[in-house]
User: What shape does this take?
Amino acid sequence: MDGDHMGNADTSTTAAAHLRTLREVSSGTKRRGDIIGPSRGSKPVHAPAPIDIDLVDHLIATRSEVIEAVRRYNPNASAAPVDEGIYQWMEDSSEELDDGRRRALEAIAYRQSLEHALRAGNRKALRWPACPGCNCFGLSWNAPLQKAACLNQRCLTEEGLQSTWDLRQVAQHHIATQGLLRRTAT
Assistant: This one.
């Protein structure tokens, strides 16, 4: 193996970095840019919770998803860390898996990386994955739809509307494309 067990060497590192940034945003050391997640239309009646409950729920759900996915493919994996090291643990736990299962785990890490970045206010996170419909690099976050939208005016649905993709579709397409590029490069 080439040491890059999850395909794109930066996937687990980027996911961990976006998770770290999201935690910094939640602790108040960075500004949050409410791009993804519930929006609040009215003023709260009560004082805000001392922590962002939606963020805590997000962190619990993402960690649980990673652990469940790894355990599905590798029931003998070591204990999962409780911090952003979970993505390195995922990568390490996938060393003996076939390419399809490694790519499935990498797609989870990539999608979660996009989710973390968007929750932290990073709209540029969708700059680099290609559109699953036309393969152009022109995705933008559509907050009301909670989907990535292709900015290519020729990439339309059958109804003539702008193509939109959930983050799972974007991640799966990105990982598949990266895998194809690696296979054809060798």
The mean pLDDT is 84. The CA atoms of residues 111 and 171 lie 5 Å apart. Strands lie at 139-142, 147-150, 164-165.
